[in-house]
Amino acid sequence: MERKSHLESLLSAGKFAVTAEIGPPRNADSEVIKKKARLLKGFVDAVNITDCQTAVVRVSSLASAVLVLSEGLEPVLQMTCRDRNRIGIQADLLGASALGIRNLLCLTGDHPKFGNHPHAKPVFDLDSIQLLRLAKGLNEGRFENGEEIKGLRPYFFLGAAENPFAEPFDFRPFRLAKKARAGARFFQTQIIYNVDKFRKFMEKLKDLGLTEEVYVLAGITPPKSLGMAKYMKYNVPGLEVPDEIIQRLESAKDKKEEGIQIAVDIIQQVKEIPGVRGVHIMAIEWEEAVPEIVKRAGLSPRESIAEMHPPFVVEKVVEKIVEKPVEVVVEKIVEKPVEVIVEKIVEKEIPLEVEMAGEKISALIEILSDLKASLKNLRSGMESLEEGIVKLEEEFLGKKEARPIVREIPKPAVEVKPPVKVEERPVEAKPELKAEPEVKPELKPEEKPEVKPEIKPEAKPEVKPEVKPEVKSEVKPEVKAEPKPEIKPEVKPEVEPEPKPEVKPAEVKIGGLKGVYRPLSARASKIAQDLYLEKANGEIREVQIGKGEKALKVGGISGINFHLFEGEMKNGLKIAFEILDVKPEDWPEHLSKYYSDVYHDPGLWAKKCVEEYGAEAICLYLLGTDPNFLNLPAEHAKKVAEKVVSSVDVPLIVWGSGNAEKDVEVLRDVADIVGVRGAVIGPVVEANHRTLAAVAMGYSIPVIASSPIDVNLAKQLNILLENMGLALDKILMDPSIGALGYGLEYTYSVMERIRLAALFAQDTKLQVPFICSIGKEVWKTKEAGLPTDALMGDAESRGVLMEALTGVTLALAGGDLLIMRHPKSVELCKILFNGLSLS
């Protein structure tokens, strides 16, 4: 049965809701959470429990929600996709529902690089929209894989977050609509200071009919200080703080008092906006301000919540234990295990009127723990005594007898043997043993004695249906000759079919599209163009890699990739082959066989990629310089770069180890070698952008701007590099991609948003090409390296398809330059891109 939460009941009844937020502590002190809950109780209808906000380790949101529930306050469980895959998420949601939690806010989550474990591996198996779909499916009684939930299904009032101010601004209402279709029924917004812009956002929602479908709760945060307001204005992307707010705080004598009044004033304004159904007050680590804000805004008192508790009560156990004398409990022990006693004790519920003083409870808990310990000792003592009796019986009586009550566990072990082997087939068991020694001498010259264990199980089923007692000895010699040719071939069918050719059929299939392709203009000739065409008003800048005839240009795109009916892809998509500075130790054999003869020399490796596999660019990864790996010096990197430069004349990309400090030392020296070739260097991150930007400007070469998979962080790094004097046409964005099955959906979502902002919102800071390191991400997944077997199929085909599918997906998301490993994957991608590029 679905049970509505208090928050859902309130909103569906058309009442104005108030929610707040609790950030769990960075320690195991439950009292911190309880204290905050007691502070907010009576002033809010529900309270959000953040899920390791800003990727910092805290008490889990689920445990914190249960503690809040125990204080009689309704929690809104926040769940992010950063740390869990879909199995873990579903397990936690089933647990949350079992514990009485009914509200769920679905979030993608901050990247670990924001937090106190920046090297933690992000999961991002799903994003917020997919999480909503998953939770909606659980509500409807099915798991994410489509399997039916048998028994009690969970139920959640589903919510999501929305930022009304993020670019592209016009796209935000449609994104909210997408979340609503996925299952979201309430939305809590980003902090609102610019009420006029928020009003425009709500008008767009109303035009789309969304204000009738979902409940929007406006985000309110009291600025605690002038410094906090300025920080939010200048350093928090996607948040707008008008100058008026800054001026009010500057002129105020009491900044905190003014901050509370600002929050109250904003609440009064947003309450009047059609479609706003409540407010979400985020007083960050300032929960004591919430009651005052609620009172001043005229939102107090709140509607009372029915008394709520977690679905377990410790006091019940204590009450029952006190009622029962110890002697009775000991009698129970002899009959049944301890677990049964506890169940019996919990059966009787305690009336709610019964209240116990704190001292009595603690004393009773001590008594309870002593009793439990005594019971365990009694049980283990009786088992030891019983074992002693059994040994005496074996010694003096020669065999075990059936024991009284307590010795019930071994009984089945004794009973299983007689019925199966002695009672049902007493005659057959003995002839088998005699027949085998007779046959052995006859078949010894022919074959191995190994067949004995294999034939036994086969001979029995064949003989059973025909003649049970008589045929045994006659049939055995006949059966022994048959299995040998049949059993052996069954062991090695795995390696026979090599689906390598499966990659090539795809070429023929895709190539065949060229003859039948009809342009969209022909297919849509009867439809007005303005119904399906949406021309971009921005363009992706061109970045040149290399010099001379073989130089490449990437970018120069004026529409979504492959939407050639709307825009132009001047330079198409480019693919670079990946090589390493050291011999790879973890590449599977089905990948290594293409390069193992040149592993010893990066120059020869690069040459083979160009001459045999047609590489149009080479990406050299300086893996060996990583301080967490071989920590090879900059001198090693220079020598490797010299070999590659002297071996090939195609454009080069030099990718450091990813250690910000070591990359400064290495790439500065390598730039001396590759600078004259116009090579790209990177990755450049916020920690080393000043030095590497200066190096790039000195040699007039492009850089790879690498940021965690986040729209605002990518934009911020581009701004920092531009502020250093590096032109945007010298920047390639590395969005930190995920491979197929490892965060690819989330990667696609973020890259798509960046590209939409660049093309349709004229966000000039994002109008630079994407570079995607695909090979590195795909081939470190376990599926790409698993051997051939019946379940997973041919190993090489699997790896090739994983890399090619990742490449095509990211190309559709806006990728301009892909770095790949397997020559077959590159070949397949090129065929697919040629098919998609038909105009």
UniProtKB/TrEMBL annotation:
It comes from Caldimicrobium thiodismutans. Residues 368-402 form a coiled coil. Pathway: Amino-acid biosynthesis; L-methionine biosynthesis via de novo pathway; One-carbon metabolism; tetrahydrofolate interconversion. GO terms for biological process: methionine biosynthetic process; tetrahydrofolate interconversion. The keyword Cytoplasm does not apply. Residues 425-503 are annotated as: Disordered. Residues 542-783 form the CO dehydrogenase/acetyl-CoA synthase delta subunit TIM barrel domain. InterPro entries: Ac-CoA_synth_d_su_TIM-brl, Dihydropteroate_synth-like_sf, FAD-linked_oxidoreductase-like, Mehydrof_redctse-like. Pfam families: CdhD, MTHFR. This is Methylenetetrahydrofolate reductase. Belongs to the methylenetetrahydrofolate reductase family. Its cofactor is FAD. It catalyses: (6S)-5-methyl-5,6,7,8-tetrahydrofolate + NAD(+) = (6R)-5,10-methylene-5,6,7,8-tetrahydrofolate + NADH + H(+). GO terms for molecular function: FAD binding; methylenetetrahydrofolate reductase (NADH) activity. GO terms for cellular component: cytosol.
